[in-house]
């Protein structure tokens, strides 16, 4: 059964366009399911699907004479006097594929839908070859609203003002599911798994395959164990500023290599760094970025992440889909956890108080932001400006 994602209407709308539809995101976030659903819904009669994890499919597109590809497809009954739809999974596995697609796109009436697991590959090598010919869509693990949909639980999306209206019955209805989201994240197969042990095993398997398979394709990894060690160190630093020198010291890696690994982890959708928001661009460059994981299940694997940091990471992933996210900090150390679109400021506390709201409101004045909220996990006290985390969906 196909379970829709929030991004699907955009993908479906783009299906009718001549441009190449590019879907990118970490492995096992559901790209292939979306691609196959698009194939099923397309009204183009001639449809072809290729998974580049199969070596025969890679060999087919690796032949140097691109017209040879067309000749082979004609022998299989494809009529290029009519429109053709070609879907290709995991395009980063074949380095020359952008050149192949460009040639076929320019010379034949072919609609391409392609998927890949690296933002670096998609936005650099792939983009340079296909400038103006494609649109890139990014797919992340499920947000909380999508998790509810996968669980067949009805819950309408809310804006921040609506979310700030506390409804006790809704809290009771969704509390257990929100705790599950905080503890195990949003990979679709993890969400659908029945037991906690199964969820934990799946998350471990996802991280292992990411390190051993995805990263080895994207870069020359000297030691997968070094990457795993770095990931564990990052997981207990969720919501803190990156200290490259300290990470280098703790991993016994060079500073340059740590920076390269961090860049790789971000561009392959494991982590996300956010900048400090400042009224002075010069100061913004100087201050370190904060780090978060794009899935709570992976962030929690070390077993050392505190519940407060785990909750903050979950809220980050919920806000990530609401706009551009940054943080704010004074020299004194006082800070605002999250700022969205330079318009909304948020403090994140497991047990929130009115004093937390006053603090964020005070700091937000420095940025001329008038809309401030405190996001809490345990609604011990309810007050104007309080949002229970499960209402952000």
From TrEMBL:
<feature type="domain" description="AAA">
    <location>
        <begin position="18"/>
        <end position="148"/>
    </location>
</feature>
<protein>
    <recommendedName>
        <fullName>AAA+ ATPase domain-containing protein</fullName>
    </recommendedName>
</protein>
<dbReference type="Pfam" id="PF13635">
    <property type="entry name" value="DUF4143"/>
</dbReference>
<feature type="domain" description="DUF4143">
    <location>
        <begin position="214"/>
        <end position="349"/>
    </location>
</feature>
<dbReference type="InterPro" id="IPR025420">
    <property type="entry name" value="DUF4143"/>
</dbReference>
<dbReference type="Pfam" id="PF13173">
    <property type="entry name" value="AAA_14"/>
</dbReference>
<dbReference type="InterPro" id="IPR027417">
    <property type="entry name" value="P-loop_NTPase"/>
</dbReference>
<dbReference type="InterPro" id="IPR041682">
    <property type="entry name" value="AAA_14"/>
</dbReference>
